[in-house]
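hiii so um. not sure if this is the right channel but i have a protein structure encoded as tokens and i wanna go backwards to a sequence. like what aa goes where. can anyone help
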């Protein structure tokens, strides 16, 4: 066990790494509980991006001058660190994207579109984010295929029997979230992949909520594609990554055409570059990739096992405190969860809850959370959601509960 894994988790020291956590909101100390929407950034990530712009700013891959060589080295070194973070076989299996949404669309257009015909099926689950629904719907509308949906239980867990029943000879791809952004449910990805692979079906995993909380090993998970977003991983917005098995990526068509993704171009024909460049048209988000790698370095320094253990403890405490609030209904009580708690409060619209909490300095998310089918499943138009990261504390949970008391006081 490394020293980082063995040492106690010092949350106060960790908080000092995040500049924004020291600010006040409405004359109160900020309590930031909207991490499923986006996470805050440690100083090391901010400094890494500043250093690139101040010392190495240049375009990559094609320049012979020193700054271009330094920028190229930093960008490709970042790719290697991301590959190691998810335990990819090689860095060429990592494609930089704007985020999970672009990665889903890349797989939908580059992999699935040429392989899907009328009557075929794409299998998703009822707990998916819109980003893992809409691109597949668009694919189905364009090809005549059908979107099938695996159900979730009243506790918010995936119905495994229902999932297995929906695998059919016409299923061409399974697209499933690693962890629900609403329910917090962690899906048994290895089990789902084994079931799908027995039928010869590849699996795409939306890791936007999995990567920030769970140690990701794509080889152990057994999936075929895995995507995640930087801004939910303590890194900048506008950057993310798609991992795919080499043989699948090589068989895919590029999603976008332009510079950087070509080997040669004539007016008669174009040949594409080798992996992963054929999927990275144009000038990429160089600073974002560097920031993403810095975030991964920061997480590795803390230790993903320590992060998960601390967040599990915080989730247990927060769940107990919220369940003690009169009139509160909690959505998502599966046994295996990341630190996300969505809830409703009697006689209070979620937007009113969020507004009053904001006055108290507590930032949560309210609305349908880009999961309207899931809202319909649970019979509500919207939910309030508190989502935690490793820099949150029990004191902040207490502040949330106290602010909910203010909601009840005002709204009755």
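sure thing!! here u go:
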């Amino acid at each position: 066990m490394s020293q980082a894994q063995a040492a106690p988790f010092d949350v106060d020291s960790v908080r000092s790494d995040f500049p924004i956590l020291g600010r006040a909101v409405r004359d109160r100390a900020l309590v930031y509980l909207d991490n499923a929407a986006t996470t805050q950034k440690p100083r090391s990530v901010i400094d890494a991006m500043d250093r690139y712009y101040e010392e190495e700013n240049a375009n990559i891959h094609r320049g012979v001058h020193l700054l271009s060589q330094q920028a190229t080295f930093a960008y490709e070194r970042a790719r290697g660190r991301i590959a190691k973070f998810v335990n990819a076989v090689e860095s060429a299996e990592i494609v930089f994207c704007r985020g999970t949404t672009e990665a889903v669309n890349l797989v939908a257009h580059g992999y699935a579109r040429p392989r899907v015909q009328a009557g075929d099926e794409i299998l998703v689950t009822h707990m998916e984010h819109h980003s893992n629904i809409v691109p597949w719907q668009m694919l189905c509308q364009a090809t005549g295929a059908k979107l099938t949906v695996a159900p979730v239980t009243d506790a918010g867990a995936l119905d495994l029997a229902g999932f297995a029943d929906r695998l059919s000879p016409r299923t061409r791809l399974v697209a499933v979230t690693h962890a629900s952004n609403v329910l917090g449910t962690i899906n048994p990805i290895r089990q789902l992949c084994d079931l799908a692979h027995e039928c010869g079906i590849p699996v795409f995993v939306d890791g936007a909520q999995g990567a920030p909380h769970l140690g990701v090993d794509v080889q152990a998970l057994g999936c075929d594609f895995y995507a995640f977003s930087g801004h939910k991983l303590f890194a900048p917005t506008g950057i993310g990554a798609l991992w795919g098995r080499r043989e699948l990526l090589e068989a895919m068509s590029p999603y976008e055409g332009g510079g950087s993704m070509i080997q040669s171009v004539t007016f008669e024909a174009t040949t594409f570059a080798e992996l992963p460049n054929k999927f990275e048209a144009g000038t990429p988000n160089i600073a974002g990739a560097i920031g993403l790698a810095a975030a991964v370095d920061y997480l590795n320094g803390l230790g993903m096992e320590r992060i998960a253990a601390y967040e599990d403890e915080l989730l247990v405490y927060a769940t107990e405190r919220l369940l003690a609030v009169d009139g509160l209904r909690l959505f998502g009580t599966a046994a295996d969860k990341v630190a996300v708690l969505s809830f409703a409060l009697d006689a209070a619209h979620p937007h009113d809850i969020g507004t009053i909490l904001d006055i108290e300095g507590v930032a949560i998310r309210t609305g349908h959370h880009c999961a309207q089918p899931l809202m319909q499943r649970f019979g509500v138009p919207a939910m309030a959601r508190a989502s935690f990261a490793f820099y949150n504390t029990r004191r902040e949970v207490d502040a949330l509960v106290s602010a909910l008391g203010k909601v009840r006081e005002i709204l009755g």
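oh and The chain has a mean pLDDT of 96.
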